[in-house]
Amino acid sequence: MSMTDQLIRLYFLTIANTRFINEFFRRDAGCCISFRVGVTVSGAGNFVNRYLCGMEHKIEQAGEADFREITEVWEASVRATHDFLTEEDIRFYKPLILNEYLKAVKLYCVRNAAGDIAGFMGIADNKLEMLFVHPGARGTGIGKTLLSYAIAHEKVTAVDVNEQNGQAVGFYLHEGFKILSRSATDGMGKPFPILSMGL
User: Fold this and answer.
1) Could you give the CA distance from residue 36 to residue 23 in angstroms, rounded to a whole number?
2) Which pLDDT score, from 0 to 100, does residue 19 have?
3) pLDDT tens for each residue of 104-151
4) How many CA within 13 A on the CB side of residue 90?
5) Is residue 17 scored above 90 in pLDDT?
6) What are the CA-CA distances from residue 195 to residues 88, 93, 169, 177, 182 (Å)?
C-alpha cells in the first residue's frame, strides 16, 4: 500500500471511529513528520490535505492562460471568508478580477497534486495586492508559503486587507505586519473598510 493510500485510509478510519490518533510518523526522503496526541478528526483531514497538496509547496509564475482558474479560486475563497459581501458584490468584482486586476500584477500560484491551482498571489511595486487560497486547501500552509516568498524574493512590505475579514487581518498580524492606517471605503468607494498594513 502506498503512503498516500495509507494516509487516506488512516483519515477515514479516524472519522469512522471518532477518536484521537496517538502518534504517526512518516519518514520519506529524509523528512520526518510527526502526527501527535491531540490531533482531532479535522486535524487529520488537514494533515492528509497537506500531504496530497505536497509538503513542499512549489511556487510558479502564473499567466493569462491561468486567469479563469485563478478567478474561480478567488470566488471560492471569497465565498468562504468574505461573509460581508453580497451576491451582487461578488458579481460586481468578479469580472474586474478577471479582466483588469489580474493583468495589473505579477502572479504566482501553488498547485495541488492534481495540477489545479490551490492558491495564488498578485504583487505590484513591493505591495501584495492579492493573496487567496482555495477553501479546500486551507490549513496546508500555502498562504504562509506564498507570503514568505513575496517578502523574500519580491521585497513585499505592504498589503491592504478588508477590515471585516478578521482571519486575514489576524494572519498578517501574526506574520509581522502592523496596521498603519484605515480607510472607510475600498478602492471602488464601496463601504468596506480597508486596513493598510506594513512590515
Assistant:
1) 4
2) 40
3) 999 999 999 999 999 999 999 999 999 999 999 999 999 999 999 999
4) 17
5) no
6) 23, 19, 8, 11, 5
Beta strands in 36-192 (DSSP E): 59-61, 106-111, 117-124, 127-133, 158-162, 178-183
* Whole-structure pTM value: 0.73
Burial (0-12, 13-18, 19+ Cβ within 10 Å), 175: middle
Please tell me what DSSP assigns to residue 21. Answer: B
Distance between CA atoms of residues 119 and 73, nearest Å: 7
Residue 12's CB is within 10 A of a number of other CB atoms, namely 13
Q: What digits encode the pLDDT tens for the residues 96-116?
A: 999 999 999 999 999 999 999
Rg of the chain (C-alpha set)? 18
3-state SS, 64-100, equals HHHHHHHHHHHHHHHHHHCCCCCHHHHHHHHHHHHHH
Phi, psi of 95 (to 5 degrees): -65, -30
Predicted pLDDT of residue 1: 56
Separation between Cα atoms, residue 58 and residue 109, nearest integer Å: 8
How many C-beta atoms lie closer than 10 Å to residue 95's C-beta?
Answer: 11
Say if residues 132 and 77 touch (Cβ distance below 8 Å).
yes
Q: How far is it, in rounded angstroms, from Cα 143 to Cα 149? A: 10
